[in-house]
Amino acid sequence: ERERLANIAHNKALLAQLKLDSAGQGFFGPKPAPAPPKEKRAKPVQPARKRRSEPALPERVMPTRSSSRLKRGAYEDPNETPDAKKRRLVTRRLQEEENMREIERQIAASRPRHHDLPLSTLALKEDRESLEKLSATMRGVDVDGAKRSYLGDVGVEEDVKGDPGLEELRERMAGLVVRSRAKVTEDRIYSATYHPERTKDLIFFGDKHGQLGIWDAQASPDEPVDDDDEAQETAEGGKYWRLQPHWPATSKSSISSVKIDPLNAQCVYTTAYDCTLRHTSFESGMSREIFSLENTLLSTVDVAPNGQEMWISDVQGGLTHLDVREPGRNAVRWSINEKEKIGCVSINPTSPHLLLTASNDRKIKLWDSRKLPHLIQANTKPATSEPAEPFYVDYDDLLPLYDATAGKPGYGLLKAQYQHGASASSAYWDPSGRKIVSTSYDDHVRVWDLQGDSLAREAPFQVFKPRRQISHNCQTGRWLTILRAQWSPNPDVHPHFTIGNMEHSLDVFSHTGEVIAQLYDSTKISAVQAVTCSHPSIVERAVSGNGSGRCILWAPAEE
């Protein structure tokens, strides 16, 4: 070994004398530059493990081996007495009957629930203490907080670059950051609505499996967060509760829309793919079904400003009017489309007889509901609290009314329509009742500005074209909820709307089509924020939800 080391030293000295000691340094090319530091990736928020109020029972450990003789059934003793045999047969019959009852219970558990349900039944995964906190939270909200007052169009009529309302809104939106995030529901977010309460941030989310998540986004968490950096980074914010108003807990019960009751902010309406519309009251602690369609999925519901009437769309091309004052009497369903799904219905807030629909036939349509036949259907049956069974009006009966001339029945029923390049996902009125925003799979968001006199006229529109057309990727595929542009319901600010972006940001647009803000935080967001909504009266509030049930509150950094 000493001889080998001596040879190496001798060779190095020889190369140094010949000035060849650095000749091989560039043989394999220059030394690569050090890699730049990796960008910090967002880590999904992790649900906190809730501590049980009572100790869990130990799991029963089953043997790993079993007897073949026991599998064949009970041993029959040939010397068994008649009395013993009789007792054995009775026991076997009772066991078989219990097995049949269990099978029937399992079958019943897979069917929709149509009866009244207390909150304790809905909150299967919440303990008594958690349910009491939910009731206390909802009792603390302003009952009249959902009553909306529309002040008219407060935005600019022309594209004025220096509009002070737009510039002020842009400045306020630029200060929004991720204030709180949590996994509010167990599955994909399908729908959301922001509660009008001003003292706390209460948001309701409907998910793919019929679960209603209620998030008090800035409340103090029940469990303290660990001090280590990773726990702080992925900790959930606020408190949330999970209810199951629609059943079964599968994709057959996806909650398609959520609406706060305008007459009582302690109540909420939900429609779902279990073909039912339910009214859940946190004041009475009961959830009851007020409408259902047999074998027809309900896509959306919108409630009139008076809180006493609602319009419901379904996937079979139907539009249903329901008077909640007499749920057993006045429900009429019109097949306004031959077969195509109606994915959205929106009531004009200042002229509630004007309806907007968006459907899979690529069209959004503007209707004057006063022209619909049988709007008030006479019914000789006594009033009842049972869910309404609608009176049906077929498509063939409505078709001649679409092209009715002046003076004929149905004239002005279909006031306007516009065909998109692909399926129309949604169309909504803004708070002033003069602007429309639509979303389509043709990768465009379109905005209309309508004149009040044209809306007031009985005649159909001569021209119905969007004022702005915004390119926006809407190709969500099968694993994401459809993107829908949603107006801010606040009538006191420059008209604007929010929509999710396939690049994970939440985009805010003016009604003129200008980008106001793109809300994004690469350290906290790792998925498309497909579902969004805004606070009805606080400008600097927006929420978004993704395909895993994780939700984000956007608010100023310090308040």
Output the keywords:
five-stranded mixed beta sheet, repeat, DNA-binding, alpha+beta, 9 helices, 30 strands, 559 residues, 16% helix, WD40/YVTN_repeat-like_dom_sf
Q: Describe it for me?
A:
With 559 residues, the chain is of the alpha+beta class. It is globular, with a radius of gyration of 31 Å. The chain has a single domain, classed as Methylamine Dehydrogenase, Chain H (7 Propeller). A hairpin with an 8-residue loop joins strand 24 and strand 25. The strands form seven sheets. A five-stranded antiparallel beta sheet has the order 1-10-9-8-7. The chain is built from nine helices and 30 strands.
Q: Indicate the multimeric state.
A: single chain
What characteristic shape results from the CA principal axes? globular
Q: In what order do the strands lie side by side in the largest sheet?
A: 1-10-9-8-7
CATH level-3 fold name: Methylamine Dehydrogenase, Chain H
- Average per-residue pLDDT, rounded, comes to 85
Beta-strand portion reads 25-35%
Low-pLDDT ranges:
149-162, 377-382
**How many angstroms separate the termini?**
74 Å
Count of the separate structural domains:
1
- Please count the helical segments: 9
Rounded to an integer in angstroms, the radius of gyration calculated over CA atoms is 31 Å
Query: How would you classify the helix and strand content by structural class?
Result: alpha+beta
Name the CATH class.
Mainly Beta
Q: Considering the protein shown, what is the CATH homologous superfamily?
A: YVTN repeat-like/Quinoprotein amine dehydrogenase
Largest sheet composition? 5 strands, antiparallel
Instruction: Count every beta strand, where a strand is a DSSP E run of 2 or more residues.
Output: 30
